[in-house]
């Protein structure tokens, strides 16, 4: 039996996905959460084989949570679901070492088969998405720089970001300054716009 943790913030979508997966004779959803902050604690408690994670979640985003699972629970594989198949997003997913990347509108049997493949260590990424990611420009920012720039894009100030990530305000400013420099941006707002248009955020 493949044990699955499902992270999706929309109740109806989460309920539908849980029902679909539980219809499979070899798959059991053992935990479900609706925010990114709950993923790692739930995974540590339930010990799933596969974490199926929506990329856009309140709290921590899906890729950050997937990275934490990869570091803390390497035996748990990750499958990212998204409604947007943007090349930059796919590249970020690959860089985060997720095991699979699937569009939410994929047929239900494709999701179940992806869970099975990911559970045995195979990589599952839609071929067209993989090709578009291959052709996309490389992001010059580190995962931490992207995380901090993403929080800034959501309107968080330096003090809030520092508190959220347990960093000093000076360290956060240094990361933001590095992002501005690497993107050849005029300022922080310009850096956010460049990263957003390149689909790195």
UniProtKB/TrEMBL annotation:
Residues 134-199 form the HTH luxR-type domain. The keyword NADP does not apply. It comes from Amycolatopsis bullii. Residues 3-119 form the Response regulatory domain. The keyword Manganese does not apply. It comes from the Bacteria. The lineage of its organism: Bacteria, Bacillati, Actinomycetota, Actinomycetes, Pseudonocardiales. GO terms for molecular function: DNA binding. This is DNA-binding response regulator. InterPro entries: CheY-like_superfamily, Sig_transdc_resp-reg_C-effctor, Sig_transdc_resp-reg_receiver, Tscrpt_reg_LuxR_C, WalR-like. The modification 4-aspartylphosphate is found at residue 54. Keywords: DNA-binding, Phosphoprotein. SMART domains: HTH_LUXR, REC.
């Amino acid at each position: 039996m493949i044990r699955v943790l499902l992270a999706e913030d929309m109740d109806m979508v989460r309920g539908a996905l849980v029902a679909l997966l539980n219809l499979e004779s070899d798959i059991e959803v053992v935990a479900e959460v609706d925010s990114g902050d709950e993923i790692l604690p739930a995974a540590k408690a339930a010990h799933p084989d596969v974490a199926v994670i929506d990329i856009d979640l309140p709290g921590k985003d899906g890729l950050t949570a997937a990275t934490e699972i990869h570091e803390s629970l390497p035996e748990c594989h990750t499958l990212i679901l998204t409604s947007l198949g943007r090349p930059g997003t796919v590249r970020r997913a690959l860089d985060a070492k997720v095991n699979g990347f699937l569009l939410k509108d994929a047929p239900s049997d494709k999701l179940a088969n992806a869970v099975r493949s990911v559970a045995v260590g195979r990589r599952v990424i839609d071929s067209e998405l993989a090709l578009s990611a291959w052709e996309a420009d490389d992001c010059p920012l580190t995962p931490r720089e992207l995380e901090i720039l993403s929080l800034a894009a959501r309107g968080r100030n330096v003090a809030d970001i520092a508190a959220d990530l347990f960093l000093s305000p000076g360290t956060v400013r240094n990361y933001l300054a590095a992002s501005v420099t690497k993107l050849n941006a005029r300022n922080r707002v310009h850096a956010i716009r460049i990263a957003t248009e390149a689909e790195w955020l």
